[in-house]
Write a structure and sequence with these properties.
This protein has about 200 residues and is an alpha/beta fold. It has eight helices and nine strands.
């Protein structure tokens, strides 16, 4: 049985879409509480569907996990919106570097939505970016930009966001999206694209 683990961080950033997503899953499967407090009895065959990489880390020792992207990719009855060949950058999250199944599913979904993906150099397993949570630069010893002042965080996020040339940047991670937005980039979460035609 599938169990949907909603992301608290996503819900804070995208209240309307989070509500739509929750309502969608409530018709199909159990919906868990916050991954840190949910105490449900789990069976060996259960699969926890996650949006957030932090949720995946929280539940992976209790239940089999699958990203929402893999779940939607296997559906035959989901009505994918059509973005008519719109070009968008894709930001892969550093926390997914060991999850090629996530990379593939995300790209499959974008193809189904008729989005032309612009790949960046540091993508997939080579990603160096998870917003201020993880950003690799030779200039700083600490990869957690959140340990630095807001001015320094903004400086590096702005420098990073320059590569996107004002085009829309698709993120599958809340922290990645926050980093892109902090750098004044034009960011959007993949769930927003799936549930709200732009």
């Amino acid at each position: 049985m599938y169990i949907y683990y909603p992301s608290c961080n996503f819900a804070v950033m995208h209240r309307k879409t989070a509500k739509k997503v929750k309502e969608y899953f409530e018709k199909r499967m159990p919906v868990a509480k916050c991954c840190k407090i949910d105490q449900r009895q789990l069976e060996k065959e259960d699969i926890g569907l996650y949006v957030c990489q932090a949720c995946r880390e929280q539940i992976k020792d209790k239940v089999q996990t699958m990203s929402l992207w893999e779940y939607f990719d296997q559906l035959d009855d989901f009505e994918f919106p059509d973005y008519r060949g719109q070009k968008m950058y894709l930001q892969d999250c550093y926390r997914d570097i060991k999850h090629p199944e996530v990379h593939q599913a995300v790209r499959n979904l974008l193809k189904k939505m008729n989005i032309e993906v612009i790949e960046i150099e540091k993508n997939k397993e080579n990603s160096i970016f998870c917003g201020t949570l993880h950003f690799e630069t030779k200039d700083l010893e600490d990869e957690h930009l959140s340990h630095y002042s807001k001015e320094i965080q903004e400086k590096y996020m702005k420098e990073y966001a320059q590569q996107f040339h004002n085009e829309q940047v698709i993120c599958t991670c809340n922290r990645c999206l926050k980093g892109i937005l902090l750098g004044k980039g034009n960011g959007v979460h993949l769930l927003e694209l799936l549930f709200n035609k732009m």
